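Same chain as my last thread, 338 residues:
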Amino acid sequence: MNPEDITTVKSLLSQPQKIAIIPHKNPDGDAMGAALAVYAFLKDKGHEANVISPNDYPKFLKWMPGNDDVVNFERENQKAQQLLQEANLIFTLDFNDLSRVGQMETALKEASADFIMIDHHQQPGDYAKVTYSDVSMSSTCEMVYNFIDFLGETDNITKAIATNLYTGIMTDTGSFKYRSTSSKTHRVVAELIDKGAENMEIHQHVFDTNSPSRLHLLGVALSNMVILSEYRTAYITLTQDELDAHDYKKGDTEGFVNYGLTLENIVFALIFIENREEGIIKISLRSVGDFSVNEFARAHFNGGGHTNAAGGRSDLSMDETVARFQEILTNYKSELNP
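reply #2:
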């Protein structure tokens, strides 16, 4: 953040405000960690703050401090709409375009509040009064720590704030193994542990709470994996029928896409997941090295994200989507085999 933006934020927060805090649709650990950390920080400063999630999120995140206060826009629409209308200030966290909030987009565009955006994805929009955007950051949660630091308030980071920030950094860095994990990231994490984040317990909450049905679904996913050695690529498909047969719950497929990258000589991995209710195939893309899944998703599957982690979607059937992907892939053979 530049000095002018820091001064603006300090001015906006100098008096008690009604503040709405918004993560993206289908929020992950980084989005909810950032939202709940900002919520706790603002509440402690005397503001009337509320986290409004566009929709539901995985059970493995619902232990986080402040979770019980989250307003679900889909389930509590009237309350959420009123909070957005009354807000003087709106934080948007872990996304940079209002289209990323699904059905909440219209309500945000109609809001009279000033916006503060904190995000680490590429190509940010220009809707916010203050935009803190840095694509080199490991996570939005690391940026929220920096945001608090810019305000000179790190001494006020409580255990709840530290726990939420640690969770977001841990999940968005693949437990600190992705390229975006810097020495600064580790120093921030060390500070959060010193301020009360219990790293072992957080890891257990997020990663060690499998149900038998989820493990069985993982078995199906792995049996469906297709390896395209010529393109150093592996992909997984999961149909709606397969999800239904294994009592699928939101978040159950989290991390499945990464199994492809554990294979020797594979640098590009995807998972195609059918969502019959929305009429789409949801696509998660991962890579190692210099192959940009962000550019691939933006060019072909209405998506985007980061160089090594992105998402997309297809309105075609599963078979048609996979066939189209395989056809597109032929144009990337040289990039995947440098």
